[in-house]
Write a structure and sequence with these properties.
CATH topology of one domain: Arc Repressor Mutant, subunit A
Strand order of the largest sheet: 1-3-2
Number of helices: 4
Radius of gyration: 20 Å
Number of strands: 3
CATH architecture of one domain: Orthogonal Bundle
Structural class: mainly alpha
Strand content: 5-15%
Largest sheet: 3 strands, antiparallel
Mean pLDDT: 78
Amino acid sequence: MIKFTKLLNPIGKKNKKADKKNWYIYKLKYMESAAFYKCAGGVGGKVLEFLYWKQSMNGNHFIPISNEHMEKEFGIRRQRIAEALKKLTAAGLVETEYAKGKSTKVRLINYVYKEDSDDQQG
């Protein structure tokens, strides 16, 4: 008969807890996320999530929006992405660079959410 030993606290690289400071989704600013969702719907939220993910690796540079990635991961077609980017650019949430035959490059415009002065006086 073979005996198996159950390890209560296995030690190894795979069992280390991940550092939550490095998880980009925990860095999501909820007011910025709400602004993107309100402006461009669910596609705007996914664009923001994609930009935060890429920004965590590359910094706040112009990032090409990968149509293949958005289609594969979120099921969003390029036409919906283009509509969302036009709305987000018009709202002043992102900057875009267009080039014929290439992916649209996008950069977040960092802004500070300020409450209306009417809300603070009441």
